[in-house]
Amino acid sequence: MGAVTDDEVIRKRLLIDGDGAGDDRRINLLVKSFIKWCNSGSQEEGYSQYQRMLSTLSQCEFSMGKTLLVYDMNLREMENYEKIYKDIENSIAAAHEKIAECKKQILQAKRIRKNRQEYDALAKVIQHHPDRHETLKQLEALGKELQHLSHIKENVEDKLELRRKQFHVLLSTIHELQQTLENDEKLSEAEESQETHMEAETKQ
Amino acid sequence: MVPREMDAQRALELLHMTVFSQSVSPCGKYLAAGNNYGEIAIFSLSAALSSEAKEESKKPVVSFTAHDGPVYAMVSTERQLLSSGNGELRAWNWSDIVKKGCKEAWSRRPPYRSSLEVPEINSLQLNPKDNSILLAGGDCAVHAMDLESGTFTHEFRGHSDYVHCLALRDQSQECLSGSEDGTVRMWDLRTGAQVHLIEVHKYEECSRPQHGKWIRCLATDCDWMVCGGGPALTLWHLRSVTPTTVFPLPHCQQHVMFYQDLILSAGHSPAINHLQISGEVRAQIPCTPRSVHSLCVNEHSPEHKVLTAAGSSHKVDVFTNFSYRAFSLCFA
């Protein structure tokens, strides 16, 4: 039991001693001077010693007050640091979230860019082909021309048929006439030969 | 695991290594890379990207020999890693791989016309809607396999030369395939019929006869498709089947993908091109491999969202911000 309290005492004293050797010594001196003053006899010495003791006491009180203030200050500094630490942690978390958001946005933007580029690539190919309206117009015009031309062709063909038929009629009439004339000639020749034959017979 | 006894031999192998394919694990923490020796190496992305990454974090966590020939394509389902090489499709469980036990879960061969040919499978594409996988083969056909039963449901024939690449249009359940014969064909996955045929090299704007007519890479985004290879990298509008933008890149492109509003592509030059749909080249980021075969973006895990590029080098570049190379993962 005694050893434990001794260790504690030694530890405490070492701790205190590290802070300010003057304080501890001052308290010891005060105690010794108090004992001396109690034992001393004469009045003036006692009075001066009393004054000296009072000043030492006030010095001790002053240093204790200083230590208390320093302790207070340390406590408040700790609080301040805690607050700053929490703030920094919050901002780190917020930054992480922002990074994740931005990554998503980048992916989205990349997708958009890809779509745009695909569109551009197709558009380039499409531009090489002529405009649809123009082609349609050209097609219409060509169609109309075709119709017109086929009309003309029909008309010409009809006329051709008509002329062919008329020529046919003409030619067949000429042939008939020719035939008739030939027939007439043959008939007349036959009649003549018959007549001469009959004449020859009657002469005999 | 093959014992690495001779350092000189391994160093020579590393010099001549080409990484053809990559795939990210479903949890997003691991990257699998397959090379031309048939090995698949698993890298831990979470370890390599963490703040205390050391040199060893950039080496594979585990590495095993998956195929006899090169691993041309890899794809990850929710629980398995599917890899394809010369004629075979093999599956490995991600849970086993992460615990370093690398035994194959199953292996399948698509039905080939003749039993003599062993055509390579150039590209794999998962179709999550009906849980099937499409394989682009060297036998000029695209095979569709149902993942649950393991049976091969459709075979899309029509190309006259081997098929390099596949792309899937989820909304309309169609798939596009690009091949060495210079055509991109669109197949309807339900009926098995060919819907469209685009002969890319016949279009003057994009054809480059000095490089050839082969189509090496395809990517599609609903109505748009970008394809490249021998002909210049071009953006097509699928509805009207017209080429809208031709990108002014001199080299042949070997891998292309749509990413947000950009098109990322890489090919025979040691750079990754960031292109905009309007046709301008926004950036050309240099990378280690001299010729890039595969690009992969880790969409499965938002903390480890990186772009990885692999090609004719034993290093796989990792880009954390897509604009510059952060570091490289190395095959051991």
From TrEMBL, chain A:
Keywords assigned: Coiled coil, Nucleus
KW Coiled coil (keyword) present: yes
UniProt GO cellular component terms: chromosome, telomeric region; cytosol; nuclear speck; THO complex part of transcription export complex
Keyword Coiled coil: yes
Region span, Disordered: 182-204
Known function: Component of the THO subcomplex of the TREX complex which is thought to couple mRNA transcription, processing and nuclear export, and which specifically associates with spliced mRNA and not with unspliced pre-mRNA. Required for efficient export of polyadenylated RNA. Plays a key structural role in the oligomerization of the THO-DDX39B complex.
Compartments in which it is found: Nucleus
One Pfam family hit: THOC7
Biological processes annotated in GO: mRNA export from nucleus; mRNA processing
Domain of life (superkingdom): Eukaryota
Basic and acidic residues bias (residue ranges): 183-204
Species annotation: Gopherus evgoodei (Goodes thornscrub tortoise)
Family of this protein: Belongs to the THOC7 family.
Coiled coil: 78-105
Name of the protein this chain belongs to: THO complex subunit 7
Automatic annotation (TrEMBL), chain B:
Signal peptide boundaries: none
UniProt GO cellular component terms: chromosome, telomeric region; nuclear speck; THO complex part of transcription export complex
Sequence ranges of the WD repeats: 156-197
Biological process according to GO: central nervous system development; mRNA export from nucleus
UniProt cross-references to SMART domains, sorted A to Z: WD40 (SM00320)
Pfam family, one: WD40
Keywords, ordered alphabetically: Repeat, WD repeat
Family: Belongs to the WD repeat THOC6 family.
Protein name: THO complex subunit 6
Native source organism of the sequence: Gopherus evgoodei (Goodes thornscrub tortoise)
